[in-house]
Amino acid sequence: MSSQPSLKSAEDFLSFVNASPTPFHAVKSAKERLEKAGFTQIKERDSWASRVQPGGKYFLTRNGSSIVAFAVGHKWKPGNPIGMIGAHTDSPCLRIKPVSKRQSDGFLQVAVETYGGGLWHTWFDRDLSIAGRVMVKTESGTVEQRLVKVERPILRVPTLAIHLNRQDSFSFNKESQLYPIAGLAAAELNRQGKSDEAEEKKAEEAEGAFEPLKSPMQRHHSYIVEIVAQEAGVDADQIQDFELVLYDTQKSVIGGLNNELIFSPRLDNLMMSYCSVQALLNSLSSSETLNDESTIRLIALFDHEEIGSQTAQGADSNLLPAVIRRLSVLPGSEAQSDQSYDKLDDTATAYEQTLATSFLISADMAHSVHPNYPEKYEAQHRPEMNKGTVIKINANARYATNSPGIVLLQEAARRAKKASSSTSSSSQGVPLQLFVVRNDSPCGSTIGPMLSAAMGARTLDLGNAQLSMHSIRETGGAHDVEHAVNLFESFFLHFGELEKKIVVD
To answer: What's the Enzyme Commission number for this chain (predicted)?
Structure first.
């Protein structure tokens, strides 16, 4: 009988990615899952001394677009190891400019800027809409964040007919030819029951009162602001500012002749974000799982990886080191026996001890071998979809993987639950693959090298194989979702034991 994994994890991932068109929404989706599993939200600005306790489960966010979640073992003591998985919440996209109102040749257009290194030609002729964060002024005078996601398609970047532009390769100017159309100017004026002259007069009147900046209604098409306000549940004049991006309204789906593929936007890197969250939750499914645990299980999902991570909420910030520093000195449980654990006289070096014994999995999607471009791949390193998570290696440290990390991860994979199948549920093991780029090919990078350099913690880079990375529509393996979830769960469950067995100073 077939031993093909089920699609349960893949289908759950689809619900996650479809609900998460922006990093803000991805964090919201993660929060909802964590809170449902009993995690408590804490804040960086507060003291954790009395709130964070051994045996507890917590999460915090920064900027609403990065999130860190962790569970503390009952036998934790200062300076102990932390098993970590890091991923990122952002993907290449088009972002609405601060002043986006454009009109040309009877069309309403929206000015956008490119975010990250996208395959921008894939954004042409797609049914696009908008999503993101809106800052609104409440009746009490405070300003708060609201998330919006307009479900219906309202934007489109049209290609020029081949009859007017016969060219062997598709090229375009990203500044002048990547602006989406939002409708016809005449139709909008007709909707409002106004003429061009009335619009001009209204604009002149609005300039009478001094404001440091023009209002959103002046900087953007008024109907777009009204649609966003409706989604946020406020009046248009309550909107102070927003960060909105374009997204493809076509839903993520399972595809392929045998339902073995996933067709979806943002696989890079929401698949690894989802697998990290779900693995942490699965590792805590038993109420006793933390009773004999002396480590902390942690996930960190960062924003801004696609643009270099050098922001307050990026991986190159103090976010993860600051969290680890605070956790490293967390007192152990009063129930601990001093005979079982050597008691630290002080916590002066607890942070350094924790970093020296901790391990980080940098989880970012990997490249599947492409059947139409086989020459682009090294002969013995050609990852395939649904053949397991890919360990990424680079001699020039574009990835942070080294041999001790491979040994640890391989043992975690050996002990992992086998992806569900018709075989015995007691069977174990998930497959792994290895990847290096060709010597004559450039190599991308991840959050792994920067975090390993900043913290000195052992680090390994990996990810599931996919095609069309950075396209508006990517392709991945449906069964690799479960492979990664089971691998990460095994890492959390066995890290405390494995860390002690792989000794490299």
So the answer is: 3.4.11.21
